[in-house]
Amino acid sequence: MQPWQQGGQRRGMFIQTQPTPNPQSLMFLPGRQVMESGSFEFSSARAAMVSPLAKKLFMIDGVTGVFFGSDFVTITKNDDYNWPVLKPDVFAALMDHFSSGEPLFTDKDSLAASDTAIHEDDDEVVAMIKELLETRIRPAVQEDGGDIVFRGFDADSGTVSLKMMGACSGCPSSSVTLKSGIENMLMHYIPEVKQVVEAPPDEGEEEALKAFEQLEQQLGEPQQQQQQQR
């Protein structure tokens, strides 16, 4: 954990920033509650349509991901953009949102996707996995500007599927964290667990990736034509 860094201030609101293990992700702490419970990740501007704040943040050039935690917002940027350029726009978007009184979500049904609480129909092993995630693992991951969500457990193979989010998604050390840290802890306390893997992208994330690849191809075609004409 590195020292707090000063951020933006307006109308009595002071926003702090904190670095994460992922150099392309930065935590913004508005000094107030963001999510009442759980967390939520937006991997595309299309997914952000359910949140006025996420929508504003995706309008900033260079922003590729937005993550809401309990008292922080993690922004992930494109490699081509620098934080000194992006931070003022992020500060402005956060301040405008929290001073406007707008809700965080316009579609409350979308919050169901972020719920990883223990349910009545969970078996004993799944309940133990979720309890460890909630009490021992998620707090540590959230300190680094991310989160981790339970996606499933295959009893036959002993495989736990987890989804890394926020600063932890795409972080160079995420695979090490998943294996050496989380896997070791789950296997130690729960003998039924044999391995931990990262869950594949869901349907919405796959659609966003395909759309981004198509856009890259469209942008690349004029450049190729210019090079061929030279």
Keywords:
alpha+beta, 230 residues, 3-stranded mixed sheet, disordered N terminus
| Helix content percent band | 25-40%
Q: Rg to the nearest angstrom?
A: 19 Å
Assembly classification? single chain
Order of helices and strands: EEEEEHEEHHEEHEH
> What fraction of residues sit in β-strands?
15-25%
The main β sheet shows up as: 5 strands, antiparallel
Number of strands: 10
Averaged pLDDT, please?
Answer: 79
Total helix count? 5
Uncertain segments are 1-6
The geometry reads as elongated
Euclidean distance between termini CA atoms: 51 Å
Overall description:
There is one protein chain. It is built from five helices and ten strands. By secondary structure, the chain is α+β, with helices and mostly antiparallel strands. The strands form three sheets. A five-stranded antiparallel beta sheet has the order 3-4-7-6-5, covered by helices on one side. A three-stranded mixed beta sheet has the order 8-9-10, covered by helices on one side. A two-stranded antiparallel ribbon has the order 1-2. A hairpin with a 4-residue loop joins strand 6 and strand 7. Helix 1 packs antiparallel against helix 2.
Per-chain topology:
Elements: E1 9-10, E2 13-14, E3 16-19, E4 25-29, E5 40-42, H1 52-58, E6 63-68, E7 73-77, H2 83-100, H3 124-143, E8 146-154, E9 159-166, H4 174-189, E10 195-198, H5 203-229
Parallel strand pairs: 9-10
Antiparallel strand pairs: 1-2, 3-4, 4-7, 5-6, 6-7, 8-9
Helix pairs in contact: 1-2
